[in-house]
Amino acid sequence: MVDPVLKHALRHLRYVKSQQPSDADSVAFADWRERIAEALDALAGVLVFKEDRVRARAEATAAREEAAEIRRRG
Fold first, then answer.
1. For residue 38, what pLDDT is reported?
2. CB contact burial 24-57 (16+ within 10 A = b; e otherwise)
Protein backbone atom coordinates (compact mmCIF):
# COMPACT_ATOMS: atom_id res chain seq x y z
CA MET A 1 0.00 0.00 0.00
CA VAL A 2 1.26 3.46 -0.90
CA ASP A 3 1.59 5.99 1.91
CA PRO A 4 -1.30 8.48 1.55
CA VAL A 5 1.07 11.43 2.04
CA LEU A 6 3.30 10.18 -0.77
CA LYS A 7 0.27 9.57 -2.97
CA HIS A 8 -0.94 13.12 -2.34
CA ALA A 9 2.50 14.60 -3.14
CA LEU A 10 2.64 12.67 -6.41
CA ARG A 11 -0.87 13.73 -7.40
CA HIS A 12 -0.07 17.33 -6.56
CA LEU A 13 3.06 17.25 -8.74
CA ARG A 14 1.05 15.77 -11.64
CA TYR A 15 -1.60 18.45 -11.17
CA VAL A 16 0.96 21.28 -11.17
CA LYS A 17 2.65 19.80 -14.26
CA SER A 18 -0.70 19.77 -16.04
CA GLN A 19 -1.01 23.52 -15.50
CA GLN A 20 1.98 24.36 -17.75
CA PRO A 21 1.42 27.64 -19.61
CA SER A 22 1.96 27.61 -23.36
CA ASP A 23 4.38 30.59 -23.48
CA ALA A 24 7.82 29.28 -22.45
CA ASP A 25 9.33 32.77 -22.09
CA SER A 26 6.64 34.40 -20.01
CA VAL A 27 6.43 35.38 -16.37
CA ALA A 28 3.62 32.83 -16.10
CA PHE A 29 6.06 30.10 -17.15
CA ALA A 30 8.56 31.25 -14.50
CA ASP A 31 5.81 31.21 -11.88
CA TRP A 32 4.83 27.71 -12.99
CA ARG A 33 8.44 26.52 -12.68
CA GLU A 34 8.46 27.87 -9.11
CA ARG A 35 5.30 25.90 -8.36
CA ILE A 36 6.94 22.79 -9.85
CA ALA A 37 9.94 23.36 -7.55
CA GLU A 38 7.66 23.64 -4.52
CA ALA A 39 5.85 20.42 -5.47
CA LEU A 40 9.17 18.62 -5.97
CA ASP A 41 10.42 19.82 -2.58
CA ALA A 42 7.23 18.54 -0.96
CA LEU A 43 7.65 15.22 -2.74
CA ALA A 44 11.30 14.98 -1.68
CA GLY A 45 10.18 15.25 1.92
CA VAL A 46 8.14 12.06 1.72
CA LEU A 47 10.10 9.85 -0.68
CA VAL A 48 11.43 6.63 0.80
CA PHE A 49 14.78 6.32 -0.93
CA LYS A 50 17.61 8.79 -0.46
CA GLU A 51 18.51 8.73 -4.17
CA ASP A 52 14.96 9.74 -5.07
CA ARG A 53 14.97 12.55 -2.50
CA VAL A 54 18.28 13.86 -3.85
CA ARG A 55 17.00 13.74 -7.43
CA ALA A 56 13.74 15.52 -6.56
CA ARG A 57 15.63 18.28 -4.74
CA ALA A 58 18.05 18.65 -7.67
CA GLU A 59 15.12 18.96 -10.06
CA ALA A 60 13.56 21.57 -7.76
CA THR A 61 16.79 23.55 -7.78
CA ALA A 62 16.97 23.37 -11.57
CA ALA A 63 13.37 24.57 -11.85
CA ARG A 64 14.09 27.54 -9.61
CA GLU A 65 17.20 28.40 -11.61
CA GLU A 66 15.22 28.25 -14.84
CA ALA A 67 12.54 30.52 -13.35
CA ALA A 68 15.19 33.02 -12.25
CA GLU A 69 16.77 33.02 -15.71
CA ILE A 70 13.40 33.64 -17.36
CA ARG A 71 12.80 36.57 -15.02
CA ARG A 72 16.26 38.01 -15.72
CA ARG A 73 15.63 37.90 -19.47
CA GLY A 74 12.12 39.27 -19.18
1. 98
2. eeeeebbebbbbbbbbbbbbbebbeeeeeeeebb
Reported as a single tens digit per residue, the pLDDT across 26-67 is 999 999 999 999 999 999 999 999 999 999 999 999 999 999
In angstroms, rounded to a whole number, what is the distance separating the alpha carbons of residues 5 and 69?
32
Contact present, 13 and 40 (Cβ < 8 Å): yes
Task: Please spell the DSSP secondary structure of 4-53, one letter per residue.
Answer: HHHHHHHHHHHHHHHT--S-TTSHHHHHHHHHHHHHHHHHHTT-SSHHHH
The model carries a pTM of: 0.92
